[in-house]
Design brief:
This protein is of the alpha+beta class and about 350 residues long. The chain has 17 helices and six strands. The strands form two sheets. Strands 3-4-2-5 form a four-stranded mixed beta sheet, sandwiched between helices. A two-stranded antiparallel ribbon has the order 1-6. It is globular and about 60 Å long.
C-alpha cells in the first residue's frame, strides 16, 4: 500500500480489479498487501451436453442439496455413473460458508481483531449451514452418487468426466486447462460459482485464492520500487491476460478481461468462463477468508469432517462438527498462547 500511496501515476488496472479479489489481498484495515496476478476461483464444472439432456438447469446448482438432487437425477436416469466428484481439500467448506455469507470465526473472521473462537458450534446459523453441507456429502456417498471422496482429481475424476462417466466436479479454475485438454472438444464444459451450503446462501461473496505477487522488504528501496513497477506491469491488460490463458487462472481486472488475448480465449476456447465474470461483477467482500494463522489445522479439520461423513452413512453429523470445532479451537488457543 505504501508504494500505491506514493505513486504519482494512475494504476488503472488496480482500480478495475474485481472488488472481492482486492479485498482478499488486503489487510484488516483495507491496505493492499499484494496483487492477485492469478485468481483461483472455486466453482462447479459440468458437462453442458449431459445436463441439458437430463433437463437440469446449471443455474439451479447453487447449493449442496441442489447438487445432491441433480446427481440423483443424473445417475438414476442412466446418464452417467457418478453425478459429481470433489477436489478433496479443506478449503471448500470455508469457501461454501463464504458463499453462504457467514463468518466462521469471531472478530469478523479476524478482520476486527485476533481470532479467539471458532463459531462452528456456538453460532446456530453457522452450525446449521455446515450441517446441511455435510448431510449432502453423506447422502451423495451413501447412495453412490459421487466419485468417492479423496479420489485424485487429475488421475481419477477428470478422466471420468472426459469419458462421460462423471457429470460434474467441484474444483478451482486453475484446473480448467487440464479439463479442457482431457475433454478435447467432445462436449462443452461449463462452470458456475462455488455452491453455498444451503439454498438460502447470500452468494455475493467470492472466496478468493490462488497466486498473488508481493513486494518483499529486503531493505533496498530501489529494488523494492522495481518490484512494485513489475507488479504494475504484470497487471497490464495483454500481459495479465496472457498469464491467465496460459495457466487457467482468471483475468483479475477489467483491462485483462477486455484484452484481445482474453476475448479470443472466451470466444474460441472456453465461452463458459463469461458466467464467472457475471458473478464477479455482482460480488462484494462478504466472503472474506478467515484471517487466521492456523490455516493448515483449519483445513485439516474441515477435510476430516467431509471424510468422516462420506465414509460412514451413519456418522453423527453433530458429533463430526464438534470434533472439527475442538480441533480448530485447540489450535487457535495454542497459537494465541505462544503468540500473545
Amino acid at each position: 500500500q505504501q508504494f500505491v500511496d506514493a505513486d504519482s501515476s494512475t494504476w488503472e488496472e488496480l482500480e478495475s480489479t474485481w472488488g472481492s479479489l482486492r479485498a482478499s489481498y488486503s489487510d484488516t484495515n483495507g491496505n493492499l498487501v499484494g496483487y492477485p496476478c492469478g485468481y483461483s476461483y472455486p466453482g462447479l464444472y459440468y458437462n453442458v451436453d449431459m445436463l441439458e439432456e437430463a433437463g437440469i438447469d446449471p443455474a439451479t446448482l447453487t447449493d449442496m442439496n441442489a447438487i445432491y438432487e441433480a446427481s440423483k437425477k443424473l445417475v438414476e436416469g442412466g446418464y452417467c455413473t457418478y453425478g459429481i466428484g470433489f477436489h478433496p481439500d479443506g478449503f471448500y467448506p470455508t469457501g461454501a460458508l463464504g458463499r453462504e455469507g457467514l463468518i466462521a470465526y469471531n472478530n469478523r473472521n479476524g478482520y476486527d481483531g485476533k481470532i479467539t473462537e471458532c463459531l462452528y458450534v456456538s453460532d446456530a446459523t453457522v452450525h446449521d449451514a455446515i450441517y446441511a453441507m455435510l448431510e449432502a456429502y453423506q447422502k451423495l456417498h451413501a447412495e453412490n452418487l459421487c466419485v468417492p471422496y479423496g479420489s485424485d482429481y487429475q488421475a481419477d475424476i477428470i478422466p471420468q468426466i472426459a469419458a462421460n462417466e462423471c457429470a460434474m466436479m467441484i474444483g478451482v479454475v486453475s484446473m480448467t486447462t487440464k479439463i479442457l485438454k482431457a475433454v478435447d472438444g467432445q462436449f462443452e464444459v461449463g462452470i458456475v460459482p462455488m455452491p453455498s451450503c444451503t439454498a438460502g446462501g447470500k452468494r455475493t461473496g467470492e472466496p478468493a485464492g490462488g497466486t498473488g505477487i508481493f513486494v518483499g522488504n529486503n531493505g533496498d528501496p530501489v529494488q523494492m520500487q522495481g518490484a512494485y513497477e513489475f507488479i504494475k506491469f504484470l497487471s497490464k491488460g495483454e500481459w495479465s491476460a496472457h498469464f491467465a490463458v496460459s495457466t487457467g487462472y482468471l483475468a483479475p481486472n477489467q483491462q485483462a478481461y477486455d484484452s484481445e488475448t482474453y476475448q479470443n480465449f472466451l470466444t474460441n476456447t472456453w465461452p463458459a468462463a463469461a458466467e464467472i465474470y457475471k458473478s464477479l461483477a455482482a460480488s462484494d467482500d462478504s466472503a472474506s477468508n478467515p484471517y487466521i494463522p492456523i490455516s493448515n489445522e483449519m483445513k485439516a479439520a474441515n477435510k476430516l469432517m467431509i471424510e468422516t461423513v462420506s465414509s460412514d452413512p451413519n456418522a453423527d453429523i453433530d458429533a463430526v462438527i464438534q470434533t472439527a470445532y475442538e480441533s480448530i479451537q485447540e489450535a487457535i488457543e495454542l497459537y494465541n498462547l505462544s503468540n500473545p
